[in-house]
Amino acid sequence: MTTTMRDVAKAAGVSVATVSHVVNDKPGARIGDDARRRVQEAIVALGYRPNALAKTLSEGTSRFIGLVADAIATTPFAGQIIHGAQDEAWRHGFVLLVANTEGNAAAESDAIAMMLEHQVRGILYSTWYHREIEVPPPLQHTETVLVNCFAGDGAFPAVVPDEEQGGRTATEELLAAGHRRIAFVNTTSPSPARVGRLAGYRAALTAAGADVDDSLVFEAAPEQEGGYNVTEAVVSSGATAVFCHNDRVAMGLYDGLRERGLRIPGDVAVIGFDNQDVIAAHLRPPLSTVALPHYELGAAGVRTLLGLESPSSGARQLVACPSIPRESV
C-alpha cells in the first residue's frame, strides 16, 4: 500500500499542512524543530515518497518536457525523433511526456492543455516529415521548439534537417565514384526537401566542374510507382548514375532497370535519400543512401529547449544528413 502524506502526519502527530511544508521545504513556514524532526523520522520509518506531480504544481516548475507529434510514433523511421528526445531529456534529468495525435486537432489541443497543466519545462512540437506548419495557438503560452518543421514567420526556434547539404552529399558520392552524367529524380510534391535536395545536387555538380544539365532532372510521384515510371526517361538520357529523391523512388527505379537488363551499379549507379532501413538495407544490391537524422533532430530539440544550443541560421538549426554507403554506387 502506498504511504500518503496523511499517514506521515498521523505518525508524527502533526497536520497534513505541516508535512507538506517540510516535504516541500517551504520558505517562511513556521515549524518547530521538534515537529520537523518527527516528520522527517516518520518519512523515513514509513518509506514515504513525495508525489512528484504535486510537488511540481506547488513549485511551478517540473522535470517534464512535452513532445506533441502528428504520426511519428507510428512511422518506424521517424519514430527515432522520440527516441532521440527521450534519451537527451533523461540525460539532463528530465522525463519526456509524449502525445501522438495522428493529426487530430482536438486531441492535439487536449494534449497541449494537459502538458501546460503539468507545468512542463517546455514543449517540442514535431511532424513526421519536414514541412512548414501553422503553430497551434496554445504553444504561445510555453517555451516551444519545432522539430522537423518550422513556422513561416520564424517566430519559434526550429530544428530541421539540412536538405541542401544532404542533396550535395548524395551527389558527391556519385561524383567520387567517377560519374559525371548524373540524373536527379525529384518529387512532384512541394516541400523543403524537393527544393533543398535539388539545390544540393546542383551545388555539388558546380563545385566539381561538372555540367548542370536540367534535362537530367526528372520529376516523379514520391513513391515506388513514380520511380518505376520514370525509368525509361532516365535510361534514354544516357545518365550513368541516378540520385533519387527518396528510397521508395529508388526502389521503383531498381525494378525498372532490372526489367531492362541493366545492372546496379555496373551499368547505372543509384543513391537514395531517407535511409528507410526496411527498404534500403534489403534491396539487392543494398541501396546507398543519405539518412534523415531523426534521432539527432529529437536530441537537438531538447538541447535547444533547455538553452544548451541556439539555432545556427536565423530561427532554424540545421542538422546534417549523413551518408549511408552500401553497394549501389
UniProtKB/TrEMBL annotation:
SUPFAM superfamilies named among the record's database cross-references: lambda repressor-like DNA-binding domains, Periplasmic binding protein-like I
Gene Ontology MF terms in the entry: DNA-binding transcription factor activity; transcription cis-regulatory region binding
Protein's UniProt keywords contain Transcription regulation: yes
Organism: Microbacterium enclense
The protein, known as: LacI family transcriptional regulator
Source superkingdom: Bacteria
All copies of domain HTH lacI-type, residue ranges: 3-59
PANTHER family assigned: HTH-TYPE TRANSCRIPTIONAL REPRESSOR PURR-RELATED, LACI-RELATED TRANSCRIPTIONAL REPRESSOR
InterPro entries for this protein: HTH_LacI (IPR000843), LacI/GalR-like_sensor (IPR046335), Lambda_DNA-bd_dom_sf (IPR010982), Peripla_BP_I (IPR028082)
Alphabetically ordered keywords of this record: DNA-binding, Repressor, Transcription, Transcription regulation
